[in-house]
Amino acid sequence: MPVEIVDNAEQSRFEILVDGTVAGFADYRLLPTKIVFTHTEVLPEHEGQGLAGKLVGHALDASRDTGLRVVPLCPYVGKYIERHPEYKDLVDGSTAG
Questions:
Q1: Angle ∠(54,32,91) on CA atoms, nearest 5
Q2: What single-letter DSSP state applies at residue 27?
Q3: Max alpha carbon distance in the chain (Å)?
Q4: What CATH number is attached to the domain comprising 84?
């Protein structure tokens, strides 16, 4: 099962594709110096395969690569960062607005 993660900037979301079909996504709002993650979802038929973790890890790595601070409004992204302290330095403590 080939898995690919892409930044669909047109829809403001990272998508994880399984066999070329969207299996999940992480919605975001892009601000000048930060990225605000608002919602993460994996479609029911793809749950339990670790796709959300792969997706969010990739999105956080991409944020780091582009120099963006992260605002984890999405509970899943917040919990992921708690479980992976190597991403804590990305978190922006100011308000997202």
A1: 45
A2: E
A3: 40
A4: 3.40.630.30
Within-domain flag for 97: no
How does pLDDT run across 45-56, given as a tens digit for each residue?
999 999 999 999
Nearest to 28 by CA among 11, 16, 44, 41: 11
Domain count, the chain: 1
Reported in sequence order, the residue ranges of the chain that DSSP labels E, i.e. its strands, are 3-8, 13-18, 21-30, 34-42, 69-72
Q: Identify the sign of the CA torsion 89, 22, 30, 9.
A: positive
Q: What's the CA angle centered on 37, arms 32 and 52, to 5 degrees?
A: 140
Decide if 20 is inside a domain: yes
The reply to whether 12 falls in a domain is: yes
65-95 tens-digit pLDDT: 999 999 999 999 999 999 999 999 999 976 5
Which residue is listed with tokens 């409004």? 73
